[in-house]
Description:
Distance between the termini: 72 Å
Order of helices and strands: H
Mean pLDDT: 87
Number of helices: 1
Amino acid sequence: xxxxxxxxxxxxxxxxxxxxxxxxxxxxxxxxxxxxxxxxxxxxxxxxxxxxxxxxx
Length: 57
């Protein structure tokens, strides 16, 4: 395989302001994902507690 056929990553041509905006969006997306996961886990625990009370009584 020739060197010019090797896959490479090109340097980003975005301005620093655009890079900051993309990084902020990426961090926000991660936090939204964490919030959704925590809400789903809380819902799961709530169902378990509710079901536990009704199974016993």
